[in-house]
Every structure is written in C-alpha cells, then in structure tokens.
C-alpha cells in the first residue's frame, strides 16, 4: 500500500506547516486557559495559568523550588491562587478540614485491607519489633565511640528500613546487623526522590522505566538504573517468595503481604505487579520520612541542652532500665516528649510539597479574606472551586504560617503545650505532616511508635555520648522539595561524633 502525502517532495515546507499548526494550536490553548477555562477567574500570574512551564522550571530545572514560588504568589494574590492551568492552591488554614474531607472512593477501597495492618492496635502488637531494633541501633551507634563522624540519617534509615522490611516481607533487611551503615535502602529512596519531579512532569517515564528490559536500563543514568533494578528484580523476588509461602507472621501478626494475600481483595489486586507496587511504596514511605524526623530531633536536642535535659528527666522518671523501655502508650503520655515530637513533625514537612485533592461530586465554596491574618477589616470574598479540579495545600506553607505558629522557623516545643502543661490538641488541627482524610499516610501509627520508642532509647542511652560535628541550621532547615522537605543541596547532613564519655545532659544558661 502506498501512503501519499500531497507535497512536492521538499521537507522544509512540510515541517514549517506542521510547526505553524502546532504554534497556532498552542496559542489558542493558552488564550483559552486564561479566558474561558473554568479556573480563568481565579487570581494568579498569567504564565502558570497558561502552561506548566513555570512549574517545570522551578521544580525540575531549579530543583524542587516551586513551593517557594507558590508562597510568593500567595503574598501577592491572596489566599487562593491558580498555580498551573488546572490546579488551585490555598493558603488559608481554616480551609484545611474542607479540602482534606474530600473523599476518594477508589483509594479508600484499595486501602481498606492495608489499613488493617497499620491500625493502632496492630502496631501495638508488633511494638516489640520496634523496641528490639531501637536497642540494636543504640548498640551500633555506641560501638562507634571515637570513630570518624558520620551522618546520623544513615543510622536512622537502617533502623526504619529493617522494621518495615521485616513487617512487610517477614525477613528484615538486617542493615543494622552489617558492619557499617551502607548499603541501605535509603540510597535507592534518595535516587528516586532526586528524580521525582522529572517523573511527575513526564508521566510516561515511570512506566517506561518499569517496562523497559533490564539490559536497556544501562542507557539511563546510574540512579535510574538502581531504581529499575530494585523495582524489577529485588523487590519482585521478595514478593514472589511471599506469594509462594502460605503464611508468614511477625509473632502472632501476619506480615503485610500475607495479610493482603489472604484478604478478600480481588485477584487483580494480588498480582505480582500490584503487590510489588505496594511493597515499593511501603518501603519508600516507611524508610525516609521517619528517619528524617529523627534526624531533626537529634539536631535540635543536641543543640538545645535545656530541651535535652528536660526530656531526659521526663523519660527517666518512668524508666527503670533504658534497655527495657516503657511502651509507646506510656511514652506518648509524656507531655514535653509529645510536644518535641509534634514540633519535629511540624518543622520537617513529611511530604513538603502540595497534596492535591479533587471534589468529584460537588463544587467547593471558599470564603476568605483578601489578606490572611487577624485584620477583620480586610475585604472578604468568595470563590466557587468547580468540581473535578485539584485544589491543594502545602505542608511547608501551612506549618510556617506565622498566625498559627508564631516564630514559625524556630524550634519551640512549648508552643504545643497549654497553660497547664498539657498537649494543646486544638493546634494539632493545623498539623498536616501525615496529611488528612482518606488519602492520609497509612503508616502514621507505625511512624509515631517508631519516633517515640527510638527517640526515647537514643535520648537515654546515646545522646549523652553524642556531639554534633560541623553541623548547623543549614543542615536541617527546609530548602526545597524532593518527596520530603530537604535542606540545601550543599549540606552534608547532620553529622555526629560518638564520644567515649557519658555526659549527663546539663542545662546551659
Ligand atoms: C514521620 C513519618 C511520616 C510522615 C510525615 C508521612 C507522611 C505521609 C504523607 C503526607 C503522605 C501522603 C498523603 C497524600 O497523598 O496526601 C504519606 C503517604 C504514605 N505513607 Fe507516610 N509518612 C510517614 C511515615 C510512614 C511510614 C512509617 C510508613 C510505613 C509504611 C508510611 C507509608 C506511607 C504510604 C504507603 C503512603 C502512600 C499512601 C497512598 O497514597 O497509597 N509512611 N505519608
């Protein structure tokens, strides 16, 4: 069959014609987006309203910096702005509950089987796993007395990876049992996070990396290759083993994969591919955010002897033997301890970028003041957010709102305590670390249990031997988004040195 193109054989005119058509349609699309598009009347600069180029520039080229740009848009245009052709962003804390009450039926159904594995009571049943690993972590850090300084994130991510791998597959990665901190799952997560914005802006890329034969991954960067090898070989191999075994448990509790395989999920949700996807997101979600929160806690306690002393005394008061800590339930009753954990969760935006939600069945009415804050005379206005369009809020922006959290960039655990010294639960409404609603973090209870138990063990057993090494605020302060909020790319992380002498935490004036 002959395919006939009506042109005289010269390639240039054809290319020019195609280019003109593409240019014209792009111009028409841009004009539509700022005139008749359902979001056209929302405030915001014209460039992001017309195309995704702005977001691409700040996130992909400048490395996860669109959140800063969104904050600038809010300062200029008010509490609700259009940040790309199809998405709105809100910077009004009073709207949190409305946005995150939006439900996602599909997500809820998919998560039902999984959320059983992460209920508070299930986590209490596997709590011994967390205690054992916390003590192992302390032993391993203490064994490095007078050795070279190291980045403490390595230690914490071995701890979190060992727990989630054990609970997921039934056999731990055993990173805490090896001589050094590397290799560990963090290297993979780090690679993935650094490339996250590219994956988000080029949606087919993730599928391509997943589908392409392993041999061809040599064409990609080493980072992409590591990701591909893990997603295509290592994790599927462990999932297949779990599928071959009939039942694996941690004590009395089934592992996550055993629980999913024996649940009433349809067979389409139990394929090797689906379960590998779940395992990847559990390993990723279960490793990085919790260890980063522990790093932040380590930095702030080692650089604030007053806080360290207060916490040391509070935990010691309910502990007879630091090698056998009180359980999570008892630890979370400690008010100052809880305040420190909440303050760390506030300052380290778990998923720092925006978490969009879509109202599928109803329009949302937003009523706000033109300028946020206490100015009751500021002009008020109302917007109808049309159904079907994402509206998002960003953890970092909300958590640094000066009206809710005065001196927001500072580490002030006492802000979480009321005048009686009890935790102010009302303020927790504005904590978006685990997100909210049907898409909130599934591992929330596991994360909290790990934070309390590991921090208690480190505070009593290890921090009195630890000293920060060439570390300052730059190494912890939020700079840009990867998946979690990250400090400046120039940072070497929070590094510590283990001394050979136990120093009782002391109050410095
Ligand atoms: C301090 C620790 C943690 C923080 C701050 C955190 C925060 C978050 C946030 C904000 C989300 C996104 C929700 C959204 O889509 O809007 C998320 C999702 C998720 N998290 Fe966590 N997380 C933490 C620890 C954990 C742990 C220990 C696990 C253990 C398995 C975990 C597993 C997951 C998974 C699987 C998802 C994806 C849920 C889904 O959309 O299917 N996270 N997390």
UniProtKB/TrEMBL annotation:
UniProt name for this protein: Cytochrome P450
Molecular-function annotations in GO: heme binding; iron ion binding; monooxygenase activity; oxidoreductase activity, acting on paired donors, with incorporation or reduction of molecular oxygen
InterPro entries: Cyt_P450, Cyt_P450_CS, Cyt_P450_E_grp-I, Cyt_P450_sf, Cytochrome_P450_monoxygenase
Family according to the record: Belongs to the cytochrome P450 family.
Cofactor requirements of the protein: heme
UniProt keywords, alphabetically: Heme, Iron, Membrane, Metal-binding, Monooxygenase, Oxidoreductase, Transmembrane, Transmembrane helix
Record-annotated membrane-spanning stretches: 12-32
Database matches in CDD domains: CYP58-like
Binding, heme: 441
Source organism of this protein record: Clonostachys byssicola
């Amino acid at each position: 069959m002959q395919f006939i193109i009506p042109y005289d054989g010269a390639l240039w005119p054809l290319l020019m014609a195609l280019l003109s058509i593409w240019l014209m349609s792009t111009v028409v699309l841009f004009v539509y987006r700022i005139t008749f598009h359902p979001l056209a009347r929302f405030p915001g600069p014209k460039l992001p309203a017309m195309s995704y180029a702005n977001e691409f520039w700040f996130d992909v080229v400048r490395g996860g910096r669109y959140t800063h740009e969104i904050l600038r848009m809010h300062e200029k245009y008010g509490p609700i702005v259009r940040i790309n052709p199809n998405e709105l962003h809100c910077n009004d804390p009073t709207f949190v509950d409305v946005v995150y009450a939006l439900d996602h039926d599909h997500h809820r159904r998919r998560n039902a089987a999984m959320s059983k594995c992460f209920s508070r009571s299930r986590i209490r049943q596997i709590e011994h796993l967390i205690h054992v690993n916390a003590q192992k972590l302390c032993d391993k850090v203490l064994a490095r007395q007078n050795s070279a300084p190291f980045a403490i994130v390595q230690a914490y991510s071995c701890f979190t990876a060992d727990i989630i791998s054990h609970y997921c597959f039934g056999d731990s990665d055993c990173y805490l049992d090896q001589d050094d901190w590397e290799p560990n799952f963090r290297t993979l997560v780090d690679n993935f996070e650094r490339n996250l914005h590219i994956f988000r802006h080029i949606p087919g890329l993730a599928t391509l990396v997943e589908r392409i034969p392993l041999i061809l991954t040599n064409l990609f960067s080493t980072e992409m290759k590591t990701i591909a090898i893990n997603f295509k070989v290592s994790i599927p191999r462990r999932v297949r083993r779990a599928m071959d075994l009939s039942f694996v448990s941690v004590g009395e509790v089934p592992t996550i994969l055993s629980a999913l395989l024996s649940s009433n999920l349809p067979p389409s949700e139990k394929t090797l591919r689906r379960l590998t996807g779940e395992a990847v997101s559990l390993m990723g979600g279960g490793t990085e955010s919790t260890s980063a929160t522990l790093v932040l806690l380590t930095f702030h306690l080692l650089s604030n002897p007053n806080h360290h002393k207060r916490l040391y005394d509070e935990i010691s008061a309910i502990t007879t033997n630091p090698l056998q800590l009180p359980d999570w339930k008892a630890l979370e009753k400690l008010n100052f301890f809880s305040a420190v954990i909440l303050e760390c969760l506030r300052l380290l935006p778990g998923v720092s970028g925006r978490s969009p939600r879509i109202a599928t069945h109803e329009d949302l009415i937003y009523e706000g003041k033109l300028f946020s804050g206490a100015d009751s005379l500021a002009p008020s206005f109302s917007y109808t957010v049309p159904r079907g369009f994402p509206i998002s809020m960003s953890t970092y922006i909300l958590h640094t709102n000066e009206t809710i959290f005065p001196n927001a960039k500072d580490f002030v655990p006492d802000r979480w305590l009321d005048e009686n010294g009890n935790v102010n639960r009302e303020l927790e409404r504005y904590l978006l670390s685990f997100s909210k609603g049907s898409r909130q973090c599934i591992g929330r209870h596991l994360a909290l249990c790990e934070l309390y138990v590991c921090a208690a063990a480190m505070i009593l057993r290890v921090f009195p031997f630890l000293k920060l090494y060439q570390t300052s605020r730059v190494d912890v302060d939020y700079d840009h988004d990867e998946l979690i909020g990250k400090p400046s790319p120039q940072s070497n992380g929070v590094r510590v040195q283990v001394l050979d002498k136990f120093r009782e935490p002391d109050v410095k004036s």
